[in-house]
Amino acid sequence: MQDNVIIDTSIFTNPNIYKSISLEQPIDAIEAFIGLTHKSSKKIYMPRTVYIELCKVVDLESIKSRFESSIIIKSPNRCNITINALALFDFVEDMRIRINKGLRIAEEFARDKTQDIQNTISKLREKYKEALRQGTLDSKEDVDVILLALELNGVILSGDEGINSWADKFGIRTVNPLFIQEFLSF
User: Which value, in Å, is the radius of gyration of the alpha carbons in the chain?
Assistant: First the structure.
């Protein structure tokens, strides 16, 4: 049986991951990944929203045709995928908790008059982002990875904590992206 593998940008933009493919820059890792896909029996997919995001982060112009010939750019069929109501309930509850935590962080920083404003804003942004986004689905691109994996009964290859956490909730198989080369060679 051939695996359908769904990838996201993290395997090309997270230095800890892309350096397991190529020790150079993200574009070099993408080129090496393309080479791996040609030797693999697996079908590699990337949701269109993720592809658009990747193109904003990495200049793919020099390898765009090879990329699009090697990786299937496909949006999930959002109209025909059914999501378990409990998952939606859990997501809303998780977001409520995160928003409340974010408000507490903002209040804490608003009360702290001892730091300079630039330093305070920088620390606030970091803590707020961690509270609201880390470990959850925080973008439409993340949701598309999950939906496409559900649609294709696929395996997710991602370094995104939120994607991997929600993949686990949906019973979607994930592979540690640090093992990309080994995974694609089987």
Answer: 19
The answer on 99 and 62 residing in a single domain is: no
- In the chain, the amino acid numbered 2 is Q
Q: Report if pTM > 0.70.
A: yes
Give the residue among 27, 1, 13 at the shortest CA–CA distance from 141: 13
Contact 76, 156 (CB under 8 A): no
pLDDT interval class at 2 (50, 70, 90) = low
| Residues 63 and 151 reside in one and the same domain | yes
3-state class (DSSP) for residue 113 = coil
- In terms of domains, do 66 and 100 share one? no
Contact of 159 with 17, CB cutoff 8 Å: yes
Give the helix/strand (H/E) hosting 150.
Answer: helix 140-152
pLDDT tens-place string over residues 17-33: 988 887 678 999 999 99
Q: Rounded to whole angstroms, how far apart are CA atoms 174 and 16?
A: 17
Residue 121 three-state SS: helix
Contact 36, 181 (CB under 8 A): yes
Do the strands 174-175 and 43-46 form a parallel or antiparallel pair, or are they unpaired?
unpaired
